[in-house]
Amino acid sequence: MNHWLTAPILLPLLGGILQIFLSFAPLGLRRTLGLATTSLILVVSISLLLLADDGAYRVYALGNWAPPFGIVLVLDRLSALMLFMTALLALFCHIYSTRGTDAQGRHFHALFLFQLMGLNIAFLTGDLFNLFVAFEVLLIASYGLLMHGGGTARSVPGLHYVVLNLIGSSLFLISVGLLYSVVGTLNMADLAVKVPQVAPEDLPLVQAAGMMLLVVFALKAALLPLCFWLPRAYANATAPVAALFAVMTKVGIYAILRVYSLIFGDQAGPLANLGMDWLFPLALVTLAFGVIGALGADGLRKLVAWQVIISVGTLLAAISLHSEASTSAALFYLLNTTWVVGGLFLVTDLIARQRGSAADRIVTAPRMRSRTLLSVLFMIGATAAAGLPPLSGFFAKVLILESVKPSPEMGWLWSVILIGSFLTVIAYSRAGSIVFWRNVEGHVKDPGHLTLPVTVSAGALISLSLVIVALAEPINRYADATAEQLHTPSAYIEILQTPVVTRRESL
Amino acid sequence: MHLALEILIVVLLITGGLFALAGAIGLLSLPDFYTRLHAPTKATTLGVGGIVFSSMIFFSFGNKSLEVEEILIMVFLFLTAPISANMLAKAAMHLKVDRMEGTKGHPWDQ
Amino acid sequence: MEILFAFVIGTLTASGVYLILRARTFPVVVGLTMLSYAVNLFLFATGRLVTAGQPIIGSAKSYTDPLPQALVLTAIVIGFAMTAFVVVLALRSRADTGDDHVDGQKEAFWPEPGAKPAPEETR
Amino acid sequence: MKALNGRFGLPHPMLSITLFLIWQALSNGISGGSVVLGLALAWLLPLFTRNFWPNNPAIRRPFRFLTYIVRVVWDITVASVNVAMLVLNPTRKPRPAFVVFPLELEHPLAISTLAGTISLTPGTVSADISDDNTLLLIHVLDMDDEADLVETIKRHYERPLREIFK
Amino acid sequence: MTLALVVLLPFLGAIVAPLFAQAGRTAIAIASSVPPVIALAALYPLWPAVEAGHVLVQTQSWLPDIGLSLSFRLDGLSLLFALLILIIGLLIILYSRYYLKKHENIGKFYSLLLTFMGSMLGIVMSSNLVLMLVFWELTSLVSFLLISFWNDKQDARRGARMALAVTGGGGLALLAGVLLIGQVVGSYELDDVLAAAQLVKAHALYPVILVLVLLGAFTKSAQFPFHFWLPHAMQAPTPVSAYLHSATMVKAGIFLMARLYPVLAGTPEWFYLVSFTGMVTLLVGAYVALFKHDMKGLLAHSTVSHLGLITLLFGMGTKLAAVAAVFHVINHATFKASLFMATGIIDHETGTRDMRQINGLWKFMPYTATLSMVAAASMAGVPLLNGFLSKEMFFAESLELNLPGLWAYVPPVIATLAGIFAVAYSARFIHDVFFNGKPVDLPIYPPHEPPRYMKIPVEILVFACVMVGMFPAISVGPLLNAASAATLAGDVPDYHLVVIHGFNLPLVMSFIAFFGGLLMYTQRQRFFDFHERFREIDEKAVFEAVVARLSEKARALTSFIENGSLQRYAMLLIVATIVVAIYPMFELGLSIGSMGISPVDAPTVVAGLILITCAVGTAAMHRERLYALILLSVVGLMVALAFARFSAPDLAMTQLSVEVVTIVLLMLALYYLPSWTPVEASRFRRWRDIVIALLAGAGMFLVTLAMLTRPFDSISRYFLENSVSGGGGSNVVNVILVDFRGFDTLGEITVLGIAALGIFAMLRDAKLAAPPTDGQGHPWSTDAHPTMLQQISRPLLPMALMVSVYIFLRGHNLPGGGFIAGLVTSVALIVQYIASGMHWSHRRMPFSLTTPIGLGLLAATVTGMASFAFGFPFLTSTFSHMHWPLVGDFELASAMAFDVGVYLTVVGATLTILASLGRLSMKSNAMPEDS
Amino acid sequence: MITIALKVTLAMVTLAVILNVIRLIKGPDAPDRILALDSLYINAIALIVLFSMLIHSRLYIQSALLIAVMGFVGTIALAKHLKRGSVIE
Ligand code: NA
Ligand code: NA
Q1: B24 CA to chain F: closest CA distance, Å?
Q2: Rounded to the nearest 5 degrees, what angle is found at the Cα of A274, between the Cα atoms of A270 and A276?
Q3: Which of B93, C11, E281, E784 could form a cystine bridge with B107, CB 3.0-4.6 A?
């Protein structure tokens, strides 16, 4: 068993614990250690990504208990991709936070690292109940991060976010319980084996469980009509937190990808492709609603927050098509949107800091000190997000459009995505031209200076859209392979045969 | 089990139950809060104490090994009941809850 | 017994849901707690109702399903942490908005579209 | 030795003994392990929690304390029946009263012990202790004679307690 | 990779050029001309092959999944456009050197200009449709930035956004069209697409493809009704207008029609769509041009008109028409670019472009005037100039259309009419600017001839107009031939490039146009008066209003739906759950499984009824908050009893402890909240919520009942069998927690720890006013720490701690364990807090409250990691039986160490949470220090 | 004999619990309710102990002990809340 599989979990855990002990240590030390931890996580994630690229499943039986009895970590292409995507985003967010965000309240670094721990568990675990625990870890950390820095505007959206997620957690438990009460197991591979064998009279129970689980994941993913908590919560979080949260909705999407391809996939008998027929129209409506939100946004943060919802709609629309090509396209899009939206949150923050009381609102304000640089970054980000060439968003969108064969779905998908893109372009160009160009006389008192770390982290995230273009071919190849792996769940099921390390009587 | 022990257990149980019931009846039927306060503080505590005590005997002789965790329960019950009563009385005096007619003396201001 | 148990869970759920839909933070928190009771009982019941089969080896002839119990334990602890957080958040919201409405004080916090923006910070 | 006693000694010997005994009882019979662990706990727990129990009065006569407890238990049992009768007899109306009891005891722990005793014995509940620890407010469920009651309490409980907590 | 290099060079230049900005305008202009010069040089050797009709394709695979390759192509058509782009680009670079002012951001300007050049080259040289599309949209983006170069001007910003919206939006339609072509053909490689022309035309999707592609082409080439963006794009600096809006970008749409001509043209759909659009555009542009007082406005509308002309030619579908179209592309580019540049010069020298102010410039700048007049004459279609030639071909083709009946007259009439307008506005351009009396209030007076080198580009272009006009066969013959061959897929018809074809109908039409135009110009005042009657629409304002309205509507809709109401969001979540579960529930019905119902006993029923009563009571009485809280504790107690009743001792204990801590927590919160809830919801709302709640409850009832009465088999057998042998404990629940599923527990205590940290952080600076009185208006009691409580709770602490040690130690084999022990310890300490106050207790705590959290997590993690040292996976446990003298036999399990971690975390987290809340009141209530 | 006695006692305690709940719901004042809750906790101890005796299992004695501890803490916290508002100060 490859112990490195635990590293993406243990590193942030140990780093977080260290931060607890150091909570009264000088900020510099905490920053250094925090950044070092995140960097290490990135290094490990990259190695795992390279490792996973051979297409094999790597199983880690925690506590040396064989699946399905113990909890297993499973590394495949998808989880490795999610780990890497998250780690890279997190590193830049973390660097950005050292600009002062981390000094606005206690325990920022600890919360940040625990957030990563929760995310990484979610991506690695092969156990449904453990996925619940992972969700809770990442949620509780996200609650803390969301409220970080205080401020009156945060508490109400934060409250909404927490309450809704608590209801969601209850639903998750009910669903897991219901599944267990019929099939008697929690391991996802074992569930995949046993769900198709469920007796007909028990089917409604499993079906109810599956559908409720979908509601839970849809809530995390912010699918309409469960997405309303998101814009205000994200728009009010501190920038690095909002940027990191770009990955939070993706956890829901990851869960849908994982559970509904493995447990309720094509091979699930009467429950095959459960819920996917609901998902497609809802995803399109989500996309449309995101676009409407973006059009109506009165602030840049809100605009970017709605972009998150647009991404969710796009991703889920592609995923619900349930073909290898569309899954692969969705994965490509996933990378693009996560990084770029993260970058946009950071850039928006830099903009807001130079505009005095106008902050990020789309109104006339005195000219920014670093207008050129910020406008270039914003423009790149907006272009990538709206899916215009020559940036990654365009290729992602083309991949998604291409992945669907002529059918009524194609008509809907194409229309919504393309008209959505058009309106998004209008929204971004309107926002950008007002914020950057429509200036009034005057000076902002004490505008923030751009320091190297913040510029680099915001710029780097935005520039990733260029990197994706440059590396489009290998990325796409990886996405293809990932989609193929996802759509062949029979291979995943073989992890149940994992042998454990032979036990000696005592160590 | 020895008959005498059985009888002891049964007596403890029944009296305990009766006391618990008496406490509950008192709680329900006594006229004001201060008089009701007496019922659980004593009758119920004592009744439950008796039941717990019978359990100790029951298990100690039934399992042929000394089982005394019940003592801890009783200690806790008897140590804490007066404090609870005191705290509640203080709260009631603070809130100036109604006293039954004809109560002599008067509560203190809180 | 099963009907009673199911009815208990149903009632807890209904009461919890009703409270969650209230407009003030406190009832919502109480509702969440109630809902989590329902969920814990439900999760526990996935191992079915067993009267005298303990999950302790050597204590009984037959055993109950220990796994749901372990899951519920985890769920209780997590639920406690979450409840604590939401309680504190409710207080925080009360401190920040001056009201215990779940949406804060509407007028003060969510300006209507078209409301006058704050004057620019200009010299 | 004194310094050692200060930092590592037994701040509450009575407590330690009690803890040791309880542990033996809990441990399902006396064994080597339970004695060792019991000793350790009897030593360590009072040590750890000593800050939480400062300036405790010394209990001069531990055996006197035991007889006190036995007496109280007996009183409770006998008097309980009276109260039960009162409660269960719907025709009898209680004659409640608040009685102020002048305290002779000074140490708060002693006062609290007295108050607790009064509460446990049927018919009386300690409702409050005055801020200066000189008066005890007692609620009586069914009072015949106030002076008699005060005298009984003083004789039965307060004097023994004064001897115990000197 | 020559072709890729040609495209890439300007992009490289765009990166390098700004570095020369510091060195001055000349330096940057020279630096910027390097890429186009090299590109021209690189193309030169390829000329013979192209002329011979060869098609050069160089392909580099990129994203095979979407059929996207870096595939470049050089044929006559792309060469023609590439030359236009590069040569006019060079002239623009030179011209801009003098046009731009010193203080302007020349680095940005040249960089954008070169980026644009690269993108344009990309469009014309792509041999892959998707790749072309990339460049296509890039030109939209860059033109957005170029138009808004003077972004402090509102008109510039609005014009730029409008251009982006129209051309970018069209690009998206084109994207759809291209992707559909790909679906039909199976490839985006131009060679494959061209080869599959018949397949495409026969395909059911052909009309859709056609419309989508044409949407792209028409928006880009400013065809009616999308033409409105172009005049507003004139807010750009004049070199940009000259380059983008006459010579290159607007020709991209034309280029696209030419490129896909073999694939899409030749059908009735094509004919009607394209020629009709072209015709309308031709006429509308020409008409409006006449009335523009702004010189650039005139030129812009003239451009619209000429683009319509070219489109119409393509639409006609005849081969000669296509040749004429290609020819007119060249001619229009030359005369229109020179006219724009001349306008720029005039603007530069006079400070205005308003023809009502500018008069009689002949006197001040005769040289410029001459050049302009030649170019304008070409625009009017005066013989011996290149404009005349292609216009003649156009007139001739308009006569060749075989339309039925009277329709046959429509094209020639419209063509002539447009010709009349063209002559009229050209005449105006000449007369109104250079003659027509004296200048009126010129901002700069007197105007002079521009710097020498600023005129060079104009001279070159005008020279080209004349050369082509007089020696067409020599000057552009080969290029036109090659381009036409590429457009028509090799099938070039016979045509003769001569100055005059003899006296024929087209010549007559030209005469009519010429004299009609002059007549119209002389009678212009009437037309002006006529035109005045129609209120001119400012498309920018309309666009702006539409966007603003869209935005407003969107905001209204968003804030209507996403209204910040948790009640609504929660309702949606719950209703969504009910909706998705309702179908399976119906399937299930009131289902009692094969295990049947087991009998009840009275105490259980009573407890159940109490639970139900109190649960409903909590909901019903929730307005009285303390009452609700008390009822809730009864519910909690009953739940604990239920756990005990159904064989879950650990759960009962956990539930009991957690419940009391929760109640204390809620009470702490209640202190700062109103003690009762006002009635707010309407009766309808309450009933709606009751219905939702009942549905949810009914669902849970059905599910639970079905589940409880069905047999099942689970993995738990394994746990029961292996608990003692493999986990070393007989309490299977505890062994699952600390061993089988220890990872869950690690996550769980992490959650607890994080919650505590988060709460600590959140409450650190919270300011909550403590209410001065309780809910009924009583002032709070002053007796904070009652003597009895204080005194008795002190000996309770060590006893409670011992109990927790006891619970902890037996946990592995009997009910208990770290978690419950931790809660007991916490509760014991909380009693101290309650009895003696925070201050008092805090000072006596031997550690800071967060330390145990860290220690606990560390203990659990390190215990888990210890197994690494022995080659076992994380969290592998071990245990052994030991014998020590005195102590005797005992068991030591690593899971115990893990459980210590759980214990410590629970203690730390619980205390941190409660103490953080308690601290609130210390701040708000200045309490006297406790003794 | 013991079993019968257990069941009789169980019945009595169950009845006591019902009476407690009635007082809890009737109030009328908060202290009454808390008092009823306190009795309920204490009677729950009896229920658990009786149940343990019925099924001959000592696994729940700890739970009874915990009820004693937790009931106390709940009661004093509620009482203090009534009197002082802030439970921990
Ligand atoms: Na008494
Ligand atoms: Na004029």
Answers
A1: 5
A2: 140
A3: B93
What is the H or E stretch that residue D137 is in? Answer: strand D135-140
* Chain E environment of F69 (Cβ under 8 Å): 800, 803, 824, 827-828
Buried b (16+ CB within 10 A) or exposed e, E501-538: eeeeebbebbebbbebbbebbeebeebeeeeeeeeeee
Secondary structure string (H, E, C) spanning A250-307? HHHHHHHHHHHHHCCCCCCHHHCCCCHHHHHHHHHHHHHHHHHHHHHCCEHHHHHHHH
Q: What is the pLDDT along chain C (123 residues), one digit of tens a residue?
A: 899 999 999 999 999 999 999 999 999 999 999 999 999 999 999 988 888 788 888 877 788 899 999 999 999 999 999 999 999 999 988 888 888 888 886 543 333 444 444 333 332
Q: Report d(CA A466, CA A380) in Å as an integer.
A: 9
Domains in chain A: boundaries: 275-493
Q: Which two tokens stand for residue A370?
A: 């670093």
Q: With an 8 Å Cβ cutoff, is E892 touching chain D?
A: no
In angstroms, what CA-CA distances link A432 with A181, A464, A466, D120, E463? Answer: 54, 21, 20, 77, 43
Alpha carbon of B74: minimum distance to chain E alpha carbons (Å): 13
Which residue among E791, E836, E888 sits closest to D112, beta carbon to beta carbon? E791
Residues 289-318 of A with CB under 8 A from E: 289, 292-298
Ion ligand 2: protein residues whose beta carbon lies under 5 Å: E 355, 358-359, 432
Ligand nearest to the CA of E524: 2
| C-beta of residue E303 within 8 angstroms of C-beta of residue E250 | yes
Q: How far, in Å, CA of A129 to CA of C75, rounded?
A: 10
Full residue range of the structural domain in which residue F80 is found:
2-84
F and B touching (3 or more beta-carbon pairs closer than 8 Å): yes
Instruction: Please write the tens of the pLDDT for every residue from B48-105.
Output: 999 999 999 999 888 777 778 888 898 889 889 999 999 999 999 998 888 888 888 8
Across-strand partners of B104? D97
Angle subtended by helix axes B45-62 and F2-26, to nearest 10: 150
E899/E892 Cα distance (integer angstroms): 12
Our CA-based measurement puts residue C121 at a distance from the nearest CA of chain F, in whole angstroms, of 43
* Chain C residues whose beta carbon lies within 8 Å of the beta carbon of residue F59: 54, 56, 59
DSSP chain C: -HHHHHHHHHHHHHHHHHHHTSSBHHHHHHHHHHHHHHHHHHHHHTT---SS--SBTTS-SS---HHHHHHHHHHHHHHHHHHHHHHHHHHHHHHHHSS-BTT--HHHHSPPTTPPPPPP---
Q: How far apart are CA E219 and CA E163, in angstroms?
A: 9
pTM for the full model?
0.93
- The residue among E577, E609, E704 with the most chain C CBs within 10 A of its CB, best to mutate, is E704
Tell me if residue D58 falls in helix, strand or coil: coil
Joined tokens for residue E826: 């916490």
**Structural domains in chain D, sorted by start:** 2-52 (no CATH), 64-164 (3.30.70)
Chains with 3 or more CB pairs closer than 8 angstroms to A? C, E
Those residues with Cβ within 8 angstroms of residue E99's Cβ, 6 or more apart along the chain or in another chain: E237, E238, E239, E344, E348, E454
Closest CA to A208 of A264, A133, A134: A264
Alpha-carbon torsion, ordered E512, E517, E520, E524, to 10 deg? 180
Cβ pair F89, E921 in contact under 8 A:
yes
Residue in F55, F62, F75, F83 to test binding to E, most E beta-carbons within 10 Å: F62
Q: Which run of H or of E encompasses F35? A: helix F30-55
Domain count within chain F: 1
Distance from CA of F89 to the nearest CA of B (A): 16
Report if residue F89 sits inside a domain: no
Note the ipTM here. Answer: 0.93
